[in-house]
Every structure is written in structure tokens, then in C-alpha cells.
Design brief:
This protein has 226 residues and is mostly helical. The protein is 69% helix and 0% strand.
């Protein structure tokens, strides 16, 4: 009963209020990322910027999307963004928390940052769903795929253009070395870097599709707001 009441509260709030909440979440992420970048550059790397930590991993994308969605006038674009954040980032947030090696070995404050970051990603995705900002139809998932492809293109551009071949590894799809992701690394050593990276991206899309299907079955709420 309490869960239903909370869901109803989110679903009945205005779209403008929901958009403001997402903007504030994006602002919190941006402030946290600024701390991380300054701490890494100044205190860990003594003034040298490490492109490995450039903020454009899959789990970094909601920081930008939460800020971008606020001034948008297009309800359709907001729906695409919110559906994307629910489908891709609940999954990626849970995966990162299950295997936190990527953010749990540098400094305790960055470990705390990593846990808070990925928990917030999950909460953002759940909020988008509970507030009725997502499209639960099959087309809703398909419409989010071009955004994923765009993000992959940006990640690839950073990987190619960042100083030093292989210094940046956005989305863990660097063309210069096997992925550091478990299983994908072994695949890259066996079938090659590019095929392994493509299989990895396909697996992410499959995971997002399963997440989308689970929320569509739950049907809370039944559909996105108009």
C-alpha cells in the first residue's frame, strides 16, 4: 500500500516538477564529478590529467542527460531520454555496484563517490519510471537506441582523439587494447578487439531490452505522460 501511494505521488506530480528534480540530480552528479576530476588531477596525478578518467563512461551519461532534458521543449525527446536512463542505467548501475573494482581502490572519498554515483543512477531510472516519464512500449525502447549509438560515437571519438593511444577508454571500447571488462577481455584476445567490443555493446543493448521488458510487464505506471 505504501509503495503504491509513493508511486501515485510521483505519477501525479507535474512534468515540470519532475524535470526540475532530474535537473537537480544532474547538478548533484556534476558537482560530484567536478570533485572527482579535481582530486584525481591535483592530489593523485600531481597536476597531470589522466584521460582514463574522462567523464564519458556509460555511467557518466545521465549527468549530461539530466541537465540537457530540463530546457528541452520537446516532450518526445524528454521521453526518449528518460526511457534511455531507466533502461540502460538501472542495469549499468546495478552491474557497477556488483563489481565495484573500477572505483574502489584509489581513495576512500572516491570509493564513496562511486557508490553514491551508481546508487543515484538507479534512483534516477526508478524515478523516471515512477513519475511516468518513460515509454513502456516496444517503440519506446527502439527510440532510445539511436541515443545509445550517439553516445557510443562520442565515446569512440574521445578514445581516438585523446592524447596517447589507448589513454582514454570510454565505454570500455578502446580500439587500441582489449577491453578491461571481464569476459570481454578474454573474447578480445580470442576473436579480436573490434568484434569483442561490438558483442559487448550488443550485450548492453540486450540487457537494456530485458530491463525495458520487465518494467513494461510491471506497468507501473501504464504509459508515459502526454
Amino acid at each position: 500500500m505504501m509503495t503504491h501511494s509513493i508511486t501515485a505521488c510521483f505519477y501525479t506530480m507535474s512534468r515540470k516538477t519532475a524535470s526540475r528534480i532530474l535537473f537537480l540530480a544532474g547538478l548533484a552528479l556534476a558537482i560530484g564529478e567536478l570533485y572527482k576530476q579535481i582530486f584525481l588531477t591535483v592530489f593523485i596525478n600531481h597536476g597531470n590529467y589522466d584521460w582514463w578518467y574522462f567523464p564519458f563512461q556509460l555511467c557518466s551519461v545521465p549527468m549530461y542527460l539530466c541537465l540537457i532534458q530540463y530546457p528541452l521543449r520537446s516532450t518526445r525527446l524528454r521521453t526518449v531520454i528518460c526511457t534511455f536512463m531507466r533502461d540502460f542505467h538501472i542495469m549499468s548501475g546495478i552491474a557497477a555496484l556488483a563489481v565495484p573494482a573500477g572505483f574502489s581502490h584509489i581513495h576512500w572519498s572516491l570509493t564513496l563517490h562511486g557508490y553514491c554515483w551508481h546508487i543515484l543512477l538507479i534512483l534516477i531510472g526508478l524515478f523516471c519510471h515512477a513519475a511516468g516519464l518513460t515509454d513502456n512500449s516496444r517503440q519506446g525502447y527502439l527510440h532510445s537506441l539511436p541515443l545509445f549509438v550517439l553516445c557510443c560515437g562520442i565515446a569512440t571519438a574521445v578514445n581516438l582523439l585523446a592524447p596517447g593511444h589507448g589513454t582514454a577508454d570510454m565505454f570500455y571500447i578502446s580500439p587500441y587494447h582489449p577491453s578491461v571488462q571481464p569476459i570481454v577481455h578474454e573474447l578480445a584476445l580470442t576473436i579480436g578487439i573490434l568484434p569483442a567490443n561490438l558483442l559487448y555493446l550488443a550485450a548492453i543493448c540486450l540487457g537494456a531490452a530485458l530491463t525495458h521488458a520487465l518494467f513494461a510487464i510491471a506497468r507501473l505506471p501504464l504509459s508515459c505522460r502526454k
